[in-house]
Amino acid sequence: MPTDIRNLDREALIEKFSQWGEAAYRVDQLLQWLYDRRVTSWNEMSNLPKILRQKLSDEFTLHVVELIRKQGSRDTTQKFLWRLADGALIESVLIPANPALYSEASDRHTLCVSTQVGCAYGCRFCASGLDGWKRNLEPYEIIEQVLATERVAESESSVTSAKPDSHSLPESLGSGKDSRIVNNLVIMGMGEPFANYDNLMQALRILNAEWGGGIGARKITVSTSGLVPQIRQLADEPFQFRLAISLHGATDAARSQIMPINQKYPIKELAEACEYYQSRKGRMITFEYILIAGVNDGLEQVEPLAHLANRLHAKVNLIPYNSVEGLSWERPDEEIQDRFAEAVRNLGVTATLRREKGHDIDAACGQLRLKTERELAGLQ
Ligand code: SAH
Ligand code: SF4
Predict the structure, then answer these.
(1) Which residues line ligand 1 (CB under 6 A)?
(2) Please, which residues have CB within 8 angstroms of residue 275's CB and are 6 or more apart in sequence?
(3) Which of 182, 214, 217, 335 could be joined to 111 by an S-S link, Cβ 3.0–4.6 Å?
């Protein structure tokens, strides 16, 4: 089975090209076509000799994901459903210019990407795991979500750029890293990123590299449901990625009720791994805490949550639960959300309450795929 060209990093390409007797500068030309120009075919690589293009296409694939459904509009949160080469469906969510949620600087666009088809971890509230786990994404399938989203955004803005007073266009469009439409990444789509660790790291290395995506490491946040060994492994990597932990419960009793992984890695072990991460990276961690009515929104969770956040110097993102078709969980009333946030803040914790954009478009990942797959199944 041929591999996709974007599974390879620059070093591997240089080795391949030298075996072929091709000059190293050809690799940089190729990389520009792939990551700056986001081309979708070998033929577009016009400064590469035809014979080299032929060799490349004989040996590698250049799969382009197919957009099969899109929700939202250019100025709001947009959700993309992609079909992969084997027919599997995954989602990405594009969140437009906004003061950044996960990094200090304000950003233009944040893209939330998937790392697996489905998820094996079965958190009770989550749509991604409802139909189980199908497979890991390859590095190029993680990277392609960025490139394909940018292709769509670019084509939409070239349609509307004819309008003289269109203020909502990204400041600079076109090719090249300076005009990357996606300049913030959150690895919070479908799947558990750390269960696909090696492919994720390869994808992030390429998206981060100057010769690749050029997205700063501090602009990349990986979210995990709490895989302790991989948190420690990431701590030992030479990258400054940001880490978010899906906590959703501050006591083992509350957390185990909704996240089966807590039985394997209870809060004590999780907290120790986070401490290790911080000691190695000196970086602030974020706790994600979805508020689910009657499950984890009681004031008895506030003290243990604040205690944990203070101990780990973590900030807390409170997110009202997004209801999922077929599941009976609900978000608490706004009053209860505010009261919870206030109580956490009163204990000295930095907590944001994120009234989610895109609630109306099933913004939590996994939902569009689930709906589409069930609709397709219904049609057969
Ligand atoms: N598997 C990883 C990353 C993907 S999930 C993880 O669990 O962290 C990304 C985030 O979305 C997690 O914090 C997850 O708990 C949250 N999430 C899942 N379903 C949700 C829903 N219906 N409403 C709000 N957040 C949800
Ligand atoms: Fe998987 Fe994360 Fe959903 Fe849990 S919350 S089922 S780990 S995607």
Answers:
(1) 125-126, 188, 192, 223-225, 246, 248, 288, 290, 319, 321-322, 324, 364
(2) 311, 312
(3) 182
